[in-house]
Amino acid sequence: MELEVPDEAESAEAGAVPSEAAWAAESGAAAGLAQKKAAPTEVLSMTAQPGPGHGKKLGHRGVDASGETTYKKTTSSTLKGAIQLGIGYTVGHLSSKPERDVLMQDFYVVESIFFPSEGSNLTPAHHFQDFRFKTYAPVAFRYFRELFGIRPDDYL
């Protein structure tokens, strides 16, 4: 699953937010790069929420004066809410489709759904900026969740 975040140059298009995996991968890569360059005391101040880490920016991740972590100028609470909304929609929408055997082609499917803030005939209204949510191999992952006994309500 992935949410796309536009750069500032794409501000004419609808805003979007990244998936947890993309966010973690980019943040992890940036953090790893910073750790190689920074002294050990600097690493501690960058990872600690309160204290001298306020106002620091690491790649696209930043911490404002109030202590709120941002990613590409989108607050982490907004990202979490949008991801939860996207996952809830995807899992709920998928449960209405009939179950079938998983095919190799199911692993190559990428679904992208646009979530306008006012809602649409497919998506609910929400209080976030407009965003696009990408789901990778939804049928295959539904199969794996069922295989390992993860119920949809547990997943949400």
TrEMBL record:
Biological process (GO) annotations? Answer: phosphatidylinositol metabolic process; regulation of signal transduction
Among InterPro entries, the record links this protein to:
PInositol-4-P-4/5-kinase_core, PInositol-4-P-5-kinase_N, PInositol-4/5-P-5/4-kinase
Q: Does the keyword Isomerase apply?
A: no
Q: Where is the PIPK domain?
A: 75-156
- Region annotation Disordered: where it falls in the sequence: 45-71
Coiled-coil spans in chain: none
Signal peptide positions are none
Single GO molecular-function term?
A: ATP binding
The name under which this protein is listed is KIAA0589
Keywords for this protein: ATP-binding, Kinase, Nucleotide-binding, Transferase
